[in-house]
Amino acid sequence: MANTTQVSFRIDENVKTEAERALKEMGLTLSTAINVFLVKVGREHRIPFEISSDPFYSEENMSYLAGIIEGIENGTRPLTEHKLIEEDDE
Questions:
Q1: Gyration radius of the chain over CA positions
Q2: Alpha-carbon dihedral sign for residues 34, 37, 43, 45
Q3: Residue spans of beta strands (DSSP E) within the chain
Q4: 12-16, 20-24, 51-55, 60-64 — which is least confidently predicted?
Q5: Distance separating alpha carbons of residues 22 and 32, to the nearest angstrom
């Protein structure tokens, strides 16, 4: 049997609860899922899934939106409707 070690870390209680619920449906425990993740990281030397940020929350876009809000609030920019932009997932 391989040597084992105990790791302790803090996580939001709701995150843990939701993860445990989903993992149970897959027949896994939280401990097993974390072990699978860490083994894969160790073998591949990368995070085994894509991590990206939503460009909506970029500093540039937040600054742009703040400017629009300021213009609407001080009356220098009219508040107008526009068509909703929808993307097809095809």
A1: 22
A2: negative
A3: none
A4: 51-55
A5: 13
